[in-house]
What does this fold into?
Amino acid sequence: MEERRLGPVVGLGTWNTFDRDVSLAGEVVGAAFSAGTRLVDSSPMYGGAEASLSDALDERRREAVVATKIWSRGVEDGRAHFARQLEWFGRVDVEQVHNLVSWREHLPWLEAEQAAGRIGRIGVTHYSPAAFAELEQSLRTGRFETLQVPLNPHERECEERLLPLAEELGVAVIVMRPLSEGSLLRRPPSPEELAPLEPFGVRTWAQALLKWALSDPRVDVVIPATRNPEHARTNAAAGEPPWLDPEARRLVERLARR
Ligand SMILES: NC(=O)c1ccc[n+]([C@@H]2O[C@H](COP(=O)([O-])OP(=O)(O)OC[C@H]3O[C@@H](n4cnc5c(N)ncnc54)[C@H](OP(=O)(O)O)[C@@H]3O)[C@@H](O)[C@H]2O)c1
It folds into this structure.
């Protein structure tokens, strides 16, 4: 699989998938890793996902890129949750401030943990365009190294200002909701409609959508979530070049509008 700044370009999200189901987490993580995925994204907001992810990673932890989040109003709570994350993961490779919650308060202690080697990169996330102005403000401090935002043919607001800013500042980009929480997959195009994408290595509609996001060179990794090991495998296969050219990207956009 192609690698960019955060490793192989197809990661694995964990919102609303395995929660506390350790055995399902093991199957999905196992399938994703055997297909080349390395970055896993979680959050204290996703129920038991961090704990089951830790269990599922097991000896794969060394090769994994663990991206998770701090989602606390208060610094004390945030630090207490970070202590649990260290028990689960040893260190956190990408520690993101979830939905910008108390980001100014959290930055100093996150930077101290980074200096001590317990955090790799510090990032920030938000799912809503209503918060993009504040995301921009947070990036302009120069203290965040990753940005996580939604990007799919139905959600393109980050293209206006955030992706250009991330490029200017050298901030790595993690794409959440690359499949629009599954809503873009409900009425997949026919095999005939997808045929022009075959030369790009696209076999399924989900792969077309993942490749659409990854064909933007400002994107480092997409993190589709799934409970289905086979989906984890076929999603990972979308991480191989060739990338879509502008015409192929426009075709995906047209197919997504139907
Ligand atoms: N949603 C948010 O607001 C949000 C916010 C912050 C962060 N994130 C992060 O971003 C990650 C991804 O976003 P998301 O989980 O909201 O949505 P998503 O990854 O865009 O879509 C997930 C849905 O797509 C389906 N799916 C995945 N691969 C498929 C395939 N190959 N074929 C058919 N269906 C497939 C899954 O169902 P199956 O289980 O059936 O495969 C699931 O219902 C999250 O898990 C989380 O780590 C999300």
In short: The chain is about 40% helix and 15% strand. The mean pLDDT is 97. The pocket of NAP is lined by residues 13-15, 41, 125, 127, 176-182, 185, 206, 223-228, 231, 234-235 (CB under 6 Å). The longest helix spans residues 75-89.
